[in-house]
Design a protein that fits this description.
It contains two helices and 26 strands. With 386 residues, it is an all-beta fold. The protein has one domain: Beta Barrel (AttH-like fold), CATH 2.40.370.10. It is globular.
């Protein structure tokens, strides 16, 4: 693995607090007092509207804009990518009124973290970069006007327009410059975007996806600029709830199939490997109509494992997926095992985020597909209280 750890321009005053972003793992959108620390909570359907809700939701502890995709060149070289922006609120919004006056230009309630990665599927090389900065002095933040939202950290950005998303990330090791066009409307997961992550009513997120974005642009590796095209996936979530006690981590799947359908599944794991009942998913048909999947609707069986030589973590890297009411059976395999994310310069969280390929059948018809899988809690328990 080739790893690029970028130095941060911002002062690391909230390093430990910024580490909350993946440990919380959930998000939210109901305007009411949260049970803890005066942050907002989610307890009912989110009623998201667009383009407004592409933008930020201050008052919630954690929010992320997450992009993955599988790309190829004209000659058939294949690449996977990830670009994610995390907004972390470190105190309730009301606390801003208690700041001493005049307050420092560096003072902020928001910390931003960025993770980027590119997987060269032919060479089996995985490169990562990371950034962390305060929402201060124009170093990081979010701007929203009319139908445009831009999330940025230094010279990384995701600009969301009415009919396109523009992604830019540059490091010394690689860069991404991509244009994405949604081919289906936003998908609201769970109950109108209210996505349960535990037994408590407030253990939930507001969660939507754009599940099929036609993508063109350029990647740069080893000083060489390469034209690419393919498909991407976008997630946006926000919440204040920590993972409930006993949840060790999660396995998340996004698959784009050759029959123009998509699948999202997330599995919330206990220490013994059992899944909690809130584990669920969504199936999206060719027309963009979504169907919620409960824990009883699917089965996921790990077929192979890989042990990281860097961290000693053991991850599943091949799975058999069955969605029972839709007669879907798929074998999903990592395009190569070593796609581990080690983020010592931002959050300290170790997780696996990688490109996968799928093949199998939908109601007896053969399908293939590409996608991404995220695996957390295999290197360290995510269930620690915040």
């Amino acid at each position: 693995m080739i790893i690029k750890k970028m130095k941060q321009r911002s002062v690391k005053i909230a390093f430990a607090l910024a580490c909350l972003f993946l440990m919380t793992a959930v998000t939210g959108h109901q305007v009411m007092a949260a049970e803890e620390e005066g942050l907002l909570a989610v307890t009912e359907p989110c009623h998201l509207t667009f383009p407004k809700d592409h933008g930020p939701h201050p008052g919630y502890r954690i929010e992320w804009w997450y992009y993955t995709g599988n790309l190829q060149t004209e000659s058939g070289e294949r690449y996977g990518f990830q670009l994610t922006f995390f907004r972390n609120q470190i105190s309730p919004s009301r606390n801003a009124g208690k700041w001493p006056q005049p307050s420092s230009a560096w003072r902020t309630q928001q910390i931003f973290v960025g993770h980027a990665a590119i997987s060269d599927l032919n060479k089996k090389e995985h490169r990562i970069a990371e950034l962390m900065a305060r929402d201060a002095l124009g170093i990081a933040g979010i701007s929203q006007k009319a139908s445009q939202t831009t999330v940025f950290i230094n010279d990384w950005s995701a600009s969301i327009y009415a009919d396109s998303h523009i992604l830019v990330a540059r490091s010394a090791d690689f860069s991404l410059d991509l244009a994405l066009q949604p081919t289906k409307p936003p998908v609201l997961h769970g109950q109108a975007g209210y996505s349960r992550k535990g037994s408590a009513t407030s253990s939930a997120s507001c969660y939507y996806s754009l599940t099929r974005l036609s993508t063109t642009g350029r990647v740069k590796l080893d000083g060489k600029t390469i034209a690419v095209e393919g498909l991407s996936w976008m997630d946006h979530e926000f919440s204040s709830a920590p993972l409930e006690t006993g949840i060790m981590g999660w396995d998340w799947f996004s698959l784009q199939l050759s029959d123009q359908t998509e699948i999202m599944l997330y599995l919330l794991r206990k220490e013994n490997g059992e899944l909690i009942p809130a584990s669920s998913g969504t199936f999206i048909d060719r027309a963009g109509i979504s169907q919620h999947l409960t824990r009883e609707d699917f089965r996921v069986t790990a077929l192979e494992q890989w042990k990281s030589s860097q961290t000693g973590a053991v991850y599943p890297v091949a799975w058999r997926l069955k969605i029972i009411p839709l007669s879907i059976e798929l074998t999903t395999v990592a395009d190569f095992p070593d796609q581990e994310m080690m983020t010592a310069q931002s959050t300290g969280v170790i997780y696996w985020e990688g490109s996968v390929s799928a093949s199998g059948s939908v109601d007896g018809r053969h399908v293939t597909g590409d996608g991404y899988v995220e695996l957390t809690g295999y290197a360290k328990d995510y269930g620690a209280p915040l």
